[in-house]
Every structure is written in structure tokens, then in C-alpha cells.
Amino acid sequence: MAKFDKQVFLLSTKNLQDNTPLLDISYQEQSIKRIWQKQRQQQLSFILNKIKPPLNQQITDMTKVIAISPDESKLLYQATQSGTLARVIKPPLPGNNHLPEARDLTVDDYYVYDIKDDKNYLLIKADKVNENDVLWWMSDSGHVLLVKQNKLFILEDDGSNRTLVFAGEFDSNYVFPHLSNQDIIVLTSLNPAKPDFYNLYNLSLR
Asked: Would you say residue 27 has pLDDT above 90?
């Protein structure tokens, strides 16, 4: 959904936009948002139903799910209560990750839960995130984009290898991971002569 002044348009994410005039759907904006919200709730319910009890109820009661990974195998969430996550795979599956799990939750910290392997990792501590920061899944479902004021970071889904990928002036409300997983779209100005004239740019991570 793209908004320009009082006009609202729906753009396909599957292909480039052709030269066909776009239809203003501003009169449908709120109903479309309600449909999308219902779809997100249905998607989350479907995923939680794949998790065995009592863990599925713990996630419902003790967390706020921020985002589902694109492949629907992981949950990025913020703890709303302290407690210990129950194991649903016993004994735990061996893994090649050198970092320890974090099944003891601390209120307000951010975590990633791997549904397939029943693994839970601390992504980032609450004191490293402020209310204006944004967390996005990258399209590979293995990395997370952290949007902070004037800085963009990429983290692995276990919280390791935090890497600064961009620093400078940009509008943090318009930062999006590209479906290619190799790019990030930002709204910024790269023209020193017109610092207030913003455009959308595609930042390559390669």
C-alpha cells in the first residue's frame, strides 16, 4: 500500500509496476487494513497450532509476537513476562550453533524462537532498543534488520554478528528489506545540494 497525500494505491510486490494508471483505493484503505490484520492473526494462530503444548500457550501468554519469518519457521517476539519456556523436543536436538539457548525470558527483551528445532535465542536486550526502533525479518529468515535513528544493522537470528550496513540521514518510517535479501530500500537524500529532497534508494548489501 502506497500513500501520496490523499491518494492510496495498491502495488504488487511480485513484479515491476507497468505504465498502467493506478487506481485510487483510498475509500477502501481501512477495510483493506482490517483484512490484512485478520490475515496476520490467522497466520499466527496457524503457526501457534503447530507448536506443541504447553509451549504454544506460553508464547500466547508471555510474549508479544513482533514478526513471523518469511518461511514461517521462526517467531521474533518480545517477552511480556518472565518465565522459562517449556521444551517440546526432548532431548534437545544437537546443533551447530555455538551460542547457548535463552529459554529463561527477561521482560522486554527480544528473542527468536525456531519452531522446527525448538530452539530459543536472545536477539537483543531491551536496553539496546528504543521505542522508535524497528525490527524486520530479512527474506532469508536467518537475519534481522534493526532500524535505528540514522543507522541500519543486520543481525543473525541468534543475535550474533551485528553489522552496521548504513549510516546517514534517512526516514526510519520508510526502510524495508528487499525480497532479494541482497538489498534494503530506504527513503533518503544523497544530494548535498538538496538535503531535504528525499527519494527511494536501493542499498546493495553485497
From this structure: yes
